[in-house]
């Protein structure tokens, strides 16, 4: 089971006053769960049948893994 798969960052910078900037940040973090051969080899010893079934559905029948998206937003002022 892997880690974070995608990160997209959008920045918008506006000058509020001389040498003072407003930075708007939007960050999209995408992650999805999938089972691979290493997961199956570790699980067979632990007998987690649902993970084995998920692996076969994913790799043999094309079922998509579960996906999670986190959206982070912030407004920050920077003085230079």
Brief descriptors of the model:
single chain, 80 residues, alpha+beta, three-stranded antiparallel β-sheet, 3 strands, rod-shaped
Query: How do the SSEs run, as a string of H and E?
Result: EEHHE
Describe the largest sheet: 3 strands, antiparallel
> How many beta-strand runs?
3
Report the uncertain regions.
none
- Globally, the shape reads rod-shaped
Largest sheet strand order? 1-2-3
- On the 0-100 scale, what is the average pLDDT? 80
Sheet-strand content, in percent, reads: over 45%
Cα separation of the termini: 43 Å
Rg (C-alpha, Å): 21 Å
Provide an overview of this structure.
There is one protein chain. By secondary structure, this protein is α+β, with helices and mostly antiparallel strands. The chain has one domain (6-79). Helices cover 29% and strands 48% of the residues. It has two helices and three strands, in the order E-E-H-H-E. It has helices spanning 37-46, 49-61; strands at 6-17, 20-32, 67-79. Helix 1 (37-46) packs antiparallel against helix 2. The chain is rod-shaped and about 60 Å long.
